[in-house]
């Protein structure tokens, strides 16, 4: 079974930075589109960013220019560098792996203080 392991969530002040990481088994990491989604209270779970196996990326408009998604194939890790954080970025962030079948992490809380 695929297990996605997340790290890096926490509390940060507005304007600060956090780096989220998610590890996946190499067998799926090498071919999967990896992504980060987030869900704020009272809202649906929305795409933050994803990166395909060939390195192509997509970002939500709300995070373009502030967040960067990347893959580390040696470690089987997808990273989300989050800069210039805003209170509206506060949400539970979920790691996602898609290879036809979709897998989800358990989520990690990111809280940005005003």
Account of the protein in words:
By secondary structure, this protein is mainly β. Helices cover 4% and strands 53% of the residues. The strands form two sheets. Strands 2, 4, 5, 6, 9, 10 and 11 form a seven-stranded mixed sheet that branches. Strands 1-3-8-7 form a four-stranded antiparallel sheet, with no helix packed on it. A hairpin with a 5-residue loop joins strand 5 (46-51) and strand 6. The protein is globular, with a radius of gyration of 13 Å. It starts with a strand and ends with a strand.
Short recap of the structure:
With 114 residues, the chain is mainly beta.
Blueprint (SSEs and pairs):
Blueprint: E1 5-7, E2 10-13, E3 18-23, H1 26-29, E4 33-39, E5 46-51, E6 57-59, E7 67-72, E8 77-82, E9 91-99, E10 101-104, E11 108-113
Parallel strand pairs: 2-11
Antiparallel strand pairs: 1-3, 3-8, 4-5, 4-9, 5-6, 7-8, 9-10, 9-11
What distance lies between the first and last C-alpha atoms, to the nearest angstrom? 40 Å
* Global mean pLDDT: 95
Tell me the structural class. mainly beta
Number of helices: 1
Number of strands: 11
Helix content: under 10%
* Shape summary: globular
Q: Keywords for this structure?
A:
114 residues, mainly beta, seven-stranded mixed beta sheet, four-stranded antiparallel beta sheet, 1 helix, 53% strand
